[in-house]
């Protein structure tokens, strides 16, 4: 198998005993020093990109692609996933997609993020597996949310929740090794955050095809529930009321039957909301939307996740 490593210090080994049928992993053949560049990867530059809905539509039409898409798509932005152009043939561009996750990883992304290189974050001895923490690449709305980790490390968390970029201890340890997207998400936490119950979704225009890598940046973005949200539960919170103004364009105006309301810098649910429902607020005046603050009893709301 072709190795796109700069050193020939690594090889691909069978890992079906740990992860299941047809799983592989990347292993060190020689000692690799902390900070060494291990892998030059072209995926970020060459892969196609899709929204989650597009990926799910592709799988619906072609269920045999389920495992491939689940394993080899990765987040590059809000509701945007990179995937090999050759996905229909279940081929990847680069073997860098064979890095497995570990809760005690040996690698991270180098200077230019996952689109460029993977580096050693500590000394790696011959025979050790090369892994990175998937929390430096994925968020709560990734496809592999809830993956049961089999890394076997002492600090393995078991179920992977992918909200690690919200955790200051994790960020302190891994920020420099995160993908550009996760770095951006982490920095956004200083002025806004959406709770782990919702995510920024890209709404596909009705006339666009499922599997084209078209100009996704132009698609309308909206805040969407990821899980069930209970009445009066906190949905999103911002650093200040000023920041609500800055980011509220993600919340769609709905004067008839909004499912959320805003008090100060916080957004709450008007009633129980099911997963995959767009979150809306009555901003009052459409032409100059202002956060509305219907009188609600918010005493039971907690401004934490
Ligand atoms: C990017 S692939 C990694 C390469 C994969 N082992 C293979 O050979 O196809 C990601 C997939 O590998 C598996 N995987 C990687 N790390 C894992 C871990 N720590 N625990 C359980 N499964 C893992 C999961 O199935 C995951 O969706």
From TrEMBL:
UniProt xrefs under InterPro entries: SET_dom (IPR001214), SET_dom_sf (IPR046341)
Cited Pfam families: SET (PF00856)
Region of interest called Disordered, as start-end residue ranges on this chain: 285-305
Sequence ranges assigned to domain SET in this UniProt record: 8-135
Domain of life: Eukaryota
Protein name according to UniProt: SET domain-containing protein
Organism: Brachionus calyciflorus
